[in-house]
From TrEMBL:
SMART domains: PTB. Belongs to the JIP scaffold family. It is found in: Cytoplasm. It comes from Schizaphis graminum (Green bug aphid). GO terms for biological process: JNK cascade; regulation of JNK cascade. The gene is Aplip1. Residues 1-43 form the SH3 domain. Transmembrane segments: none annotated. InterPro entries: JIP1_scaffold, PH-like_dom_sf, PTB/PI_dom, SH3-like_dom_sf, SH3_domain. Its main location: cytoplasm. SUPFAM superfamilies: PH domain-like, SH3-domain. This is JNK-interacting protein 1.
Amino acid sequence: MEVDVGDPIYVQKEAEDCWCEGVNLRTGAQGAFPSAYAVDVEYTDFDSATPKVKRERFLLGYMGSVETMWHKGNSVLCQAIRKITERPNCKPQSCILEVSDQGLRMVDRAKSSTMQTRDSSTPCQDYFYSLKNVSFCAFYPDDNRYMGFVTKHPTCQRFACHVFKANESSRPVAEAIGRAFQRFYQKYIETAYPVEDIYIE
């Protein structure tokens, strides 16, 4: 089945070989297509009655993740980037980073995007990091193509830095994450400290 960028696809069946069967809602065509070229979206994206959630998506190269001793700071980011880029055969893996008010979702499609046959069983990697567990984000000051964010383990005091590389500047990605933090914090304040009207009789 032929698909173009932006085509909405209804998935009828998903196989373990990273191929799916579905319907192209734009053309009405039915058939198989590689899941590497599709991104999951929420039904709420098409429901006008549901409050819209701001989402921004970026095509990046995922360099890797390393455990860190501290939860924030440019020194933590720089050390992580140097450690990852000094690894032998370090090559970025194509991924989509989705930034929303809920968190950061990384879909690593490098393994599946290189598949030429349907008999491969290597799955795509899909990770989600809640914003409440993201403690720091910045781009590398020596080369702004590199950026990263630090996450806290949900149940223990352990931290990891996840590093990405953009084709050009990664500043727009870091700024998008900053805007998501602002919206998340604003919603938290409104929920934790609601303002009630006081009427004097």
